[in-house]
Amino acid sequence: MTIKHYALPIGGELMETGAALDVYDKYRGRVIATVAVADRRTVDLAVAAASRAFETIRLSPYERFSILKRTSELLLREKKALAELITAETGKPIADSLTEVERTAQTVEISAEEAKRIHGEGVPVESAPGAENRMAFTIRVPIGVVCAITPFNVPLNLAAHKIAPALAAGNAVVVKPASATPLSAIRLAQLMEEAGLPKGLLNVVVGSGETVGSWLAQDPRIGLYTFTGSPEVGRRLKQDTGLRNVLLELGSNSAVIVHEDADLELAADLCAAKSFANAGQVCISVQRIYVHDRVWEPFVGLLAEKTKALIAGDPYDASTQVGPMISEKEAIRAERWIKEAESAGATIECGGIRNGSVLQPTILTGVDDAMKVVCEEIFAPVVGLMKYRDLDGCIAAVNRSRYGLQAGIFTRNAEAAFRAARELRVGGVIINDASQFRADQMPYGGVKESGWGKEGPKYAIREMTEERIVVWNLGT
């Protein structure tokens, strides 16, 4: 097997640094590529290239649209090769990787369309005494250099969710992909260059958060940071960046409520699919399911039946639904959390078996708020079920979490649905679907320790631009 080497796209050139990291096939465990690792000088050059490009290149909204639209088309042209790349570097089942490429193309296309829709609004200052002869309006202007720090679990689409809106808004970008999965972001940068993106507007640096991430956080030339990762790293990033803007998506332990009048077949189907997709390594994966005691037994039986039918293993097999976790180390950690919960009184209804980095989809009952599988983000194919009797108490239990990204509720009762929508302290409430629903054009972001700020192209562009008031004195 030929091991490909990737240099870093910086300032329109491919830069070598003298150091490289190995990228592994997460299922087969062998090296598939090497990538240049950025040193401090490389990071400085990347930010300088972005700053220079932002100051000297003025693309019209239609030019931004055209480049992004062409990128979307190129993504679909490369769908098979990109999906194979994603599966290799993440372990995601090939069917899911194909879907990720399609969604990435949609994210970029939506961003292209939004590039033509950035606008301000009129402000009626003339209604203020003494300002009768003035007219005012706002405009939205790009922030400048955007630093995008992306996670390993959805390496192409989540990179696109940061890069494409930033470019659509007229900014320049420095992106630092996760070291475990840097290949997708580098390939995206290559496709954008092929689509006509001018040199320097998109730059890629690879390295650890302790070094490359820290250097980026300290660079005053960067105007905004958009980060997806853990609350601990997000908190440190916010502290290091001071008064500059930061968008944070910091994960969750998402809850789903199965009310007494729920369609149990629908709820079990969707919870089985969305608890274990991408081996549970999605920020809005279903982790906690609160089941009304009147439907406890039939729902647990249905969910276990559907979960046992899932095929886990080789992600290159088109029939596989649950692939390996990002590393055996993470699978061992999740296995340990399962055993800790079992020792504390939980019951393993199915799963709990690990083979290397593949952890079988696992259902736990008898869990409580003190267990890590409930109160922490497990980021693994594990879901815990708890009973409830009244909706008020259930909503209070859901809200006890320090996280608040998304939640779901299954019910035929409109009053119960709207009460959940009003009272659940999360960024999104999904009715008659699981928490792990996301359409790429919708606003996406959490509350509490799940972060702040919104993704989704339209909403990200709003975050990545500044509102400026313009007041015109019309004379006397």
TrEMBL record:
InterPro entries: Ald_DH/histidinol_DH (IPR016161), Ald_DH_C (IPR016163), Ald_DH_N (IPR016162), Aldehyde_DH_dom (IPR015590), ALDH-related_metabolic_enz (IPR051020). This is Aldehyde dehydrogenase family protein. SUPFAM superfamilies: ALDH-like. Keywords: Oxidoreductase. Gene3D superfamilies: Aldehyde Dehydrogenase, Chain A, domain 1, Aldehyde Dehydrogenase, Chain A, domain 2. GO terms for molecular function: lactaldehyde dehydrogenase (NAD+) activity. It comes from the Bacteria. Residues 19-469 form the Aldehyde dehydrogenase domain. It holds the Pfam family Aldedh.
